[in-house]
Amino acid sequence: MKKRLFSFPLFVLGFCVIQAQTLLQEIPAYKIQFGDMQDVDINADGKLDLFIGGNDYAKAATSERIGLDGVSYYYQTLMLMWSDIQAKFYEAGSNFKNNSRPYSAFADFDGDNILDMVYANHGIVAAFPEDFGLYLGDGNGNFDKEAWTFDIASYEFFPRACAVADVNNDGKPDIIAMGYIGTYGTSDFKNCSAILINNGEYVGDMKFKVTNQTLFANNAWSYPMIQTLDVNNDGYTDFVLTASDASDNAISDKTFTDIFLNKGATAPGEFQRMYLCEQMGGKPQYVGPVLVQDFSGNGYLDVFITGKNGTTSVSPMNLYLNNGNSTFSKSTQANFRADLRNENSTPSQSKAYDWDGDGISDIIMSGYVSEAPATQTGFWWKNNGSAVFGAESRLPGASNSCMAFPDWNGDGVRDMMIIGKTTSTTYITQGGTNYFEAMITKGEAPANAKPSAPTNIKSVTNGNSVTLSWDAAVDDKTPSNSLSYEFYLKNSDGDVYNNCRSIIGGSLDGSRMVLALGNAFLNKTIALNNLPDDDYTWGVQAIDACYAGSVFASGSFTIDGLSAVTRTQDFNINISVNGQVLTVNAGVENAVVKIMDTAGKLIDMQLFSQTYSKELAKGIYIIVVEQNGERKIQKAII
Predict the structure, then answer these.
(1) How distant, in Å, are the alpha carbons of 72, 297, 538 from that of 461?
(2) pLDDT band at residue 482, thresholds of 50, 70 and 90?
(3) How far is Cα 349 from Cα 364, in angstroms, rounded to an integer?
(4) What mean pLDDT comes out for the span 312-336?
(5) What residues are paired with 362 via a beta bridge?
(6) What is the rounded CA–CA span in Å between residue 47 and residue 407?
(7) The pTM is what?
(8) Of 147, 228, 247, whose CA–CA distance to 518 is shortest?
């Protein structure tokens, strides 16, 4: 392992302050352009691995993929997994193949507490039509494409960006898909932008309802970036979108930027535009990072956006501070740049991260600067805790790049890894025209302590709804206002019902499987609706500015939508399930059995004596047996 120490006194060199940096390693073989690199615990061992993919600039033979069009394309896929035995990352095998400008969203769709992935990209659809969709992780680095269905048969899932969140608060993971294929204004144009509501009847049932298409119908978004957030802390997920817009409805110069606000309790999962640019002084931008964090410390999530507008290469940095009333104010920052551009369109270009370990989220960005010395580089802007960012400090960096924060040397402190194009030799040994490599910079912060678990957790049920609440947790450095929260919901079968991206239970309880805000964002109350009748366990953890999670505080509740029905104990029924065959033993003659789904729809009704059997599709059913005016009700899960 090559270790290079650059130690400079603090001084101003042309345009920035240079501080001591230790380059842990360079990997020239990783020549990835327009890549995506995710810190993700692939095998749920409590250690974050690296999932990396993108265009192979070197066009190595091992990266060649021949499309259905007969053309050779070159894309790298790297699965770097941490080994405790070797005390280092190693290249693990994977059956997954990446495409151009990959966009991956990791989530748990089948309830096994192993991360799955929704995948989009900018590749040629005709060449690789199978490179879009939902892939189930096996915990060993492999992702197998899963069949799914949409309620609108004509809908095709070929977006350029995607995100996963429970947008209608029924506990199930939904999908935000943005982008189009074909040529706008021609017959081959297909708008893939939609909100896909998880309509499965049980955990792992991959049925989705295509919604909100009318809201997106008049735009044609390419190179989209999506970041989820909760703007007004109402417990419902909103999202930021930046994109190039080929339609006539672009905000300016074929560019679009806005925040889509969830209508919340009145219409969960339906969205409306906030008009960030038209009404709040925002600037439409694309092919640049979008970051979401509580930079100001007021307990509301702020938004950082950079990128170009139209065909110009100017990429000003813009910070929008959340006023707490569903409006944003553009912040004036004396130390932000107007000439740093990455021109990637994947979600890992940049990061809001506590780089110096003071508990406050900073901004780290990498790209090309046009002002002297006109080179690829990285910068760190330190946040004072009130969204005032200090003078930039220079770091190793690259353009067309992606960024992650692995603990590369296993010392308990997260380092920074960047893969992309760099001409600068300030930090690396080679560099030059069209030179690509991976570079790992040592993290200089002290080891981070995890926050405490939330306290005073409560669950209040009402029919098929539950309200979960907790008191704020405490961290030794991150202010309580700025802690985010991740919660889980488990049914009586032990399936994780919602999308929880932390390990649940055992010695690794609370270990994060991604470096991201929690699924409850900054909220300390979440209301869920339309839950199936069942006995649930649930838990919640706190997450700090380094995205470290506490252990879970846990509780339980029962959803019983039939609690108001009068039940009798004069005769008993016994229900058994073998495969998909339901058997009811009542022990009485001339009884009537009714099989209903959880919405009350009658599936079957029969007169029987002693025993009734029927093969059913997977799902949750209500079984009602009546005899001589007496009734017995039970639930069955197939």
Answers:
(1) 57, 32, 13
(2) very high
(3) 9
(4) 95
(5) 353
(6) 9
(7) 0.87
(8) 228
Q: Are strands 393-395 and 16-18 parallel, antiparallel or unpaired?
A: parallel
On the CB side of 195, CA atoms within 13 Å amount to 24
> Tens digit of pLDDT for each residue in 53-99?
999 999 999 999 999 999 999 999 999 999 999 999 999 999 999 99
Q: Is 5 exposed, middle or buried (0-12, 13-18, 19+ CB in 10 A)?
A: exposed
Q: What are the Cα distances from residue 533, in Å, to 391, 461, 500?
A: 55, 11, 20
Residue 370 and residue 580: Cα distance in Å, rounded? Answer: 64
Q: What's the pLDDT band for 3 if we cut at 50, 70, 90? A: very low
User: Which of 26, 270, 304, 256 shows the shortest CA–CA distance to 169?
Assistant: 270
- Gyration radius from the chain CA atoms: 26
> What is the token pair recorded at 604?
């079957």
Distance CA(439)–CA(427), nearest Å, equals 9
CB-based contact 403:349 (threshold 8 Å): yes
Contacts of 9 by beta carbon, 8 Å cutoff, 6+ apart: none
pLDDT, residue 209, reads 98
Here the contacts of 607-610 (C-beta below 8 Å, separation 24 or greater) are: 608/584, 610/585, 610/586
pLDDT at 635 over 90: no
| Helix (H/G/I), strand (E/B), else coil: 266 | helix
Q: How many whole angstroms separate alpha carbon 593 and alpha carbon 537? A: 31
